[in-house]
Design brief:
The chain is of the alpha+beta class. The protein has helices at 17-28, 87-96, and strands spanning 7-14, 31-34, 43-46, 63-68, 79-84, 100-108, 112-118, 124-129. It has an 8-stranded mixed sheet, covered by helices on one side.
Length: 130
């Protein structure tokens, strides 16, 4: 069996960082972390215990985050993030399968390369090369 590309993260948009952090902390006891402007004001959500490299230590469980809504970004919907070994090859595979890659990969400091795409059904999904 060939290596699979697991779902490793989820993302959802927010309008108010503090409000979304407070909501998920109160509703589900998630550990929420508001980042600064250098990290895009991203809000991380720890839904399960993690290792030193911030990866889930619970089989089948993932952590996630929230991004600030912006008029300049397409497809701001909840999505999943798929781990890939080579983001350029994965982008080609997405396009070859009928998907549409949304821009060029961006570097996330300390994490890896990230890019979103639309699948054949209009769902926004993302790729992450760590």
């Amino acid at each position: 069996m060939s290596k699979t590309n697991p779902v490793v993260h989820f993302e959802m948009p927010y309008e108010d960082a503090k409000r979304v952090a407070d909501f998920y902390n109160k509703a589900f006891a998630w550990k929420m972390n508001l980042t600064n402007e250098a990290m895009g004001n991203y809000v991380t959500a720890q839904t399960t215990e993690t290792s030193d490299n911030n990866r889930s230590t619970t089989p089948g469980a993932i952590n996630g985050g929230f991004f600030q809504k912006s008029d300049s970004m397409p497809a701001q919907y909840p999505s999943v993030v798929i781990s890939v070994d080579d983001i350029q090859n994965a982008m080609k595979s997405v396009a070859d399968a009928g998907g549409k890659v949304l821009g060029e990969p961006m570097d996330i400091p300390g994490v890896g390369k990230y890019v979103s795409f639309m699948d054949s059904e209009g769902n926004r999904v993302s790729l992450l090369e760590v």
